[in-house]
Amino acid sequence: MQKMSSQGKDVLFIKQENEYTGIFTKTDLIKLLEKNINPAEVGVSTVMSKPILSIDASASVEEARKIMVEKKLRHYAVTQNRKIVGVLSIVDMNS
């Protein structure tokens, strides 16, 4: 929570042993709070989404939007040469 707040981010990619293994979002945090679970008592790995779903940076915006709608995703990792280079949010699609 502190890292998300200090960086002004709604999404964090979680890295374990030099490999990205999951994604933790503000929505994951809200779900914990709705269940009256103290976030300080839960490991990120237990609530993060995994595996990380991604789309290549060369894909069209329309292609990304279609996939996000079909899979009901709010965030999607953007990759280039199999490395995460950014994140695409459904909010980005609506702006």
Task: Lay out the secondary structure.
Layout (H helix, E strand, L loop, with lengths): L1 H6 L3 E6 L2 E7 H9 L9 H4 L6 E3 L4 H11 L3 E6 L2 E7 H4 L2
What would you say about this model in short?
The protein has helices at residues 2-7, 26-34, 44-47, 61-71, 90-93; strands spanning 11-16, 19-25, 54-56, 75-80, 83-89.
Q: Which characteristics define this entry?
A:
3-stranded mixed sheet, 95 residues, CBS-domain
How would you sum up this structure, described in words?
This protein has 95 residues and is an alpha+beta fold. The protein has helices at 2-7, 26-34, 44-47, 61-71, 90-93; strands at residues 11-16, 19-25, 54-56, 75-80, 83-89. The chain has 2 domains: 1-51, CBS-domain, CATH 3.10.580.10; 53-95, CBS-domain (Roll). The protein has 5 helices and 5 strands. A 3-stranded mixed β-sheet has the order 3-4-5.
Beta-strand content: 25-35%
Q: What is the number of E strands?
A: 5
The H-and-E topology, N to C, reads as HEEHHEHEEH
In one word, what is the shape? globular
